[in-house]
Design brief:
By secondary structure, the chain is α/β, with parallel strands linked by helices. Helices cover about 40% and strands about 25% of the residues.
Amino acid sequence: MGYLGVDIGGSFIKYCGRAGDDIKKGKIPTEKGFDSILKALRTLVKDFSPERLGLGVAGLYDQKTGRLTASPNIRFLEGIDLKEILEEELGTPVIIQNDASAAALGEYRYGAGKGAEILVCFTLGTGLGGGLVVNGRLVSGVSGSAMEIGHTTIDVDGWYCHCGRKGCLEAYVSSYGLERFYFFLTDQKLDSAEIILLANEGKLEAMKALEEFSRYLAVGLMNVLHIFNPDRVVIGGGIPQHYPAVIDLAVSNLKKMAFELPFRDVQILKAELGEYSGAYGALVLSEEGL
């Protein structure tokens, strides 16, 4: 018997499988549709013969009903009894968590969060996710929706978020938030990858957009420092992976904003597992049956 963790995203399935002491990881492109995901999962289950399948899924996963209640990037999974269907189709027990919670667990066991007493994880990409591990235990809330840090409100009359509300932190700290900052500076519409590329080339407007982005990231960090007083915050996702300076900029802003006491005792680090944090966390779900 092996173990298998899978992180389901809008465009790719990322996986980590263990057979003995070796961990094999990779990603599989998926088309928009449940059949494509199911096909990939069948192949992976056949390859690794897992004792159980750990799964990280973007969105609000209701642990009481087994249903994904909201997922902006994989809407075709919303409302179905994902756990029941997958267990029937794959013939193996399935444990499901929100992808950002899985990422926190992955970084705690295998990455930059090792040994933390209170670990907060931010995932910066299309949206903004959050995860929390306290004394080695994942905190997912009574229904599975804890740590939706991206949908905490920082300005009641602020920018519209993709969730439909105004002023969510995600509206500023996300790929589309970065695109908004760049547009307001230049009147040009570029995607976040292009903006980061320009910033890495030293283009002033792109660097300014990321500086503004980092100021709002610091607000989010300040809020979790003041609420949880963590000893470790790990920041992952595509934006810090390709522009690591955004973390240093945020920490510099945070030092001016936060209370001295929680700031003194926290380390803020880039995720070590890169785009595979969620898959590693899902592997932990498989290994430990959490």
